[in-house]
């Protein structure tokens, strides 16, 4: 599946109701998000699926692929574009086998070795970070930009930088060969997610030129 990793918006429902989360996703898509990841670390399968179906109904009209964090079963059940897995989730090779060749499989990679292994196992893109400390409830470990750049050069698939990124601190990535940036709070906590997404995307594209 073809996809554009330029602006990858990851949800965080810890400061949203279901309705406000859906509004934020809608506005993020309107502002230029190119991928949306639904991340629900604490939800059971039934609730995760119900929310995923509602989010997909928002992203589909914008033709923005929906990625499900962690749960291949939820991704399959809601017809999502793919899944993203970390080191403690299902192995990339298993996800690829379950999802088939036409779905997106993303993986977290914090080292060159992990990046090469994920690519060999069938990953379509990598998420690398955290570049900065984050305010999300996901445990993070800072990844030097030098390591990020080494990972980009080690694999032929897109690498997306993640972790505490916003329009005002992306300059550290100016010379990095990343394919995109992933943001959480910078859009999901914004008073105007549409404007926030548009500004971050504009800043990244300008920086990449």
Strand content: 15-25%
- How many extended strands? 8
Secondary-structure element series: EHEHEHEHEHEHEEHH
Helix run count: 8
Distance between the termini: 26 Å
Strand order of the largest sheet: 1-2-3-4-5-6-7-8
Low-confidence parts:
none
Rg (C-alpha, Å)? 16 Å
Overall mean pLDDT:
96
Explain this structure.
39% of the residues lie in helices and 16% in strands. The protein has 209 residues and is α/β, with parallel strands linked by helices. Strand 6 (125-129), helix 6 (145-154) and strand 7 form a beta-alpha-beta unit. The longest helix is centred in the C-terminal third of the chain and has 16 residues, at 193-208.
List keywords for this structure.
single chain; 209 residues; alpha/beta; globular
Chain-wise SSE layout:
Layout: E1 7-10, H1 18-30, E2 35-38, H2 45-59, E3 66-69, H3 72-78, E4 82-85, H4 92-99, E5 104-108, H5 112-120, E6 125-129, H6 145-154, E7 159-162, E8 180-183, H7 185-188, H8 193-208
Parallel strand pairs: 1-2, 1-8, 2-3, 3-4, 4-5, 5-6, 6-7, 7-8
Helix pairs in contact: 1-2, 1-8, 2-3
Give a short synopsis of this structure.
This protein is an alpha/beta fold. It is built from eight helices and eight strands.
């Amino acid at each position: 599946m073809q996809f554009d990793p330029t602006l990858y918006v990851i949800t965080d429902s810890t400061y949203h109701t279901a309705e406000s989360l859906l509004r934020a996703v809608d506005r993020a898509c309107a502002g230029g998000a190119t991928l949306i990841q639904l991340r629900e670390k604490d939800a059971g399968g039934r609730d995760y699926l119900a929310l995923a179906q509602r989010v997909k109904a928002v992203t589909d009209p914008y033709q923005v692929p929906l990625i499900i964090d962690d749960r291949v079963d939820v991704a399959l059940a809601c017809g999502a574009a793919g899944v993203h897995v970390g080191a403690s989730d299902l192995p990339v090779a298993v996800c690829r086998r379950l999802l088939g060749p036409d779905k997106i499989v993303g993986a977290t990679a914090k080292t060159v070795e992990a990046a090469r292994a994920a690519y060999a196992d069938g990953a379509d893109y990598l998420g690398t970070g955290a570049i900065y400390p984050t305010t999300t409830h996901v445990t993070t470990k800072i990844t030097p930009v030098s390591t990020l750049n080494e990972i980009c050069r080690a694999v032929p698939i897109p690498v997306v930088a993640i972790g505490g990124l916003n329009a005002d601190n992306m300059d550290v990535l100016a010379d990095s060969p990343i394919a995109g940036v992933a943001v959480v709070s910078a859009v999901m906590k914004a008073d105007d997610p549409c404007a926030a997404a548009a500004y971050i995307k504009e800043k990244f594209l300008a920086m990449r030129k």
